[in-house]
Structure formats: structure tokens, C-alpha cells
Amino acid sequence: MNAREDLTYVYAAVPDTREVRASLGGLRGVSGAPVSLLAAGTAPVAFVVSRVAPDEFDERTLKARFEDLEWLEGVARAHHEVVQTVARHDTVLPLRLATVYQNDDRARRALTDQSRAFTERIALLRGRSEFGVKLYVSPAGSTDRTGRTDGAESREGAADDASLTPGKAYLRRRRAQHSAQETRYRYAQEAAARVEALAPRFSTHRVRHPAQTGALAGPEENVLNDAYLVPHDRAEEFRTALAAAVEGLDGVRVEVTGPWAPYSFATPSPPSGPGAAGEGAAP
Amino acid sequence: MTASRPTESLPGRQVALVDLLDRLLSGGVVLSGDLVLSIADIDLVRISLRALIVSVDSEADPLAPPDREGTVNAPPDRERTVNAPPDRERTVSAPPDRERM
Questions:
Q1: Is A254 exposed, middle or buried (0-12, 13-18, 19+ CB in 10 A)?
Q2: CA A225 to CA A129: how far, in whole Å?
Q3: Which residues of B fall within a CB distance of 8 Å from A194?
Q4: pLDDT tens for each residue of A165-208
């Protein structure tokens, strides 16, 4: 097989319908390549695919590319755009980023092998979207996004500072900050408990992602990073309930993202084996 | 069920890369066999991107009977405690912050 031939990049599995096919018209994917549907015989599901250049997506190049955040972002956003576009028309089962086959035939073989599992999974996901629910704690002594200063801090910190030596005033402020921060973590626990309590009214399934840290995560501390699967017609109520859940909890913010295609819920039941025991089965 | 899907509700707003990578690097169907490559095979990701994103480990079935996991501070296996230190890279002991940005 000539290594220069284009490879087949697979974005998602979807029901093979006329509407889905129509939705792909003019759509561009990774590297700007046109996106199409790859069917396998009479299977009710098809792959959403495009061609990618082998010199960009062979194994060695890819490993290097994954060190390159700019490149990774380009691929991730292109992948996401394709998945979300299809998701507007039908239930989509997204594939892991950078799933690449040697050619269409090999991708088709994989599709045929998995067709039944994909179909079942799509049926489970139908009518629902994924929503991200994140809780943030703002650092003590900071002002929140509305410009308010933290209530606890100003109450305790400002009290008769004038009558103290600068050193004592400083220590007192530090103590107040510290206790304000503890209060915020307590509030965050409370917020998380409220989210947990209300979610079953809207959602049957949850996946916990690790809290976001690091360079991309932003200045506030993320303490909860969950994904919920919510029926389309309950989404607005879900948002409203979440916003209400953090009311009165100073320094804690809830952020709802989505609707997402069900990325976090796409994995079909893994074959039993190491690591298949369930959530939290840490290696 | 195809009417008014709420997928349009982020008009013009780009999703945050960190949220996207959470999903694209740890979510999505993982196929095996006959692939040229899938990100699931790339352990390097755990190293070079771990300062950016940290979720590369959820392989369990999220549609399995729910709620074996607990609240934020419950089972310590995934360090969900709100106060937990942000050290959850288990597979790599390389020095932190070696990402280049």
C-alpha cells in the first residue's frame, strides 16, 4: 500500500439518513477537507469521514503534533464543528479525536464490525444532549466578576483596622482572608451537594471529569467538572435550576456549557477486562 | 424528536478549548484494531498536555447504571474532594509544567 495515499479520518457514527447526508453538504473538516458519509452495506449507521494527508497524520508525525497546542486546537475545533453540525440533525456518536484509518475500506470494515453496538448506543442517546456543569471558587480577597468584593472579607477585615498597628491589621486581614476562603470551599461543597441533589430530576447519567487545572483553565479554581446527559426539552429548566442552586453562596460560581454532542457518554460498554470495572476504577 | 434541537444555543461563541479537550481527549468512542492511529494510543499526550488538561482516564461506560460514584467529597479514588490538591496525574512522574506555551 502506497504510504502517500490519503488516510480516512473518522469523526463520528451517525444514522444513515437523507437529512444527515444533506447536512454534510459544503461542510469542511480537519485540514479543510470536504466531509462525507461512509456507509457500509445495509448498516443503519455510517461514519462521518474526510481525507487527511498521510504526512500529517502518520503515527510519528502525530505524536510530535500532539505536542503542538496550536495544531491540536485546530484539529479539535474542526472535529468538533463537524460533530456539532451533524448533531443538529440527528443523534451523533462522536469518536475520539484523531481516529484515523489507512483507507475507506478499513474504516468500513470497522464500521461493519461495530454497527450493532453503534446503533444501540445511538438509540440510548437519542433525544438527549450533554451539558457540562462546572463549579468555580474565586480566590479570597479577589473581587468576583461583577466587581463585588467578597462579603466575608470586607466585614471581618475592615473592622476597626484603624485602631491596629499595621502589622496586626495585616495579620487580621490575612486571617479574615483565610477564613473567607474556607467559607468558600464550604460553600462549594454545599453547591456541589445541591447540584447533585437536583440533577436526577433532569438527567439520568453523569460523568465526572477531573477538575480543570493548568494553563488553559483560567484564573478561578475549578472544583467540579461534571457532564450530564439531559433530554433536549429539559435543558432550559436544568440551566435555571443550576443557576438557582448557587444563589447565596458567595465566591462560588456555576458554569453550564453545552449543549454538546454526547462526547462523554459515547463509549460503548467496554469488553470486560482490566479497567472495565467501572467509573473510578483507577489503574 | 428532530424538532428544535438546542444545539444552536452558543451563537458565535467559541467553546473553551479546555472544555473541548476534556471531551475530545477522554470522551468519544475509542475504536481499536486496524487503525493507523488513535489518540488513545498516544501516551505522550499524558505528558505533554497534562498541564493543560488532565482527563485522559475515563474508559468506563457512562451509561451503565449510574450513581456508583458519590458526591464531591465521597470516594477518594478520583480525588473529587473540593479541597484536593491539583495533583491527579497518576501515570507520569515527569516534572510538572513542561508544556510550552
A1: buried
A2: 16
A3: none
A4: 889 999 998 998 888 888 999 999 999 999 999 999 999 899 99
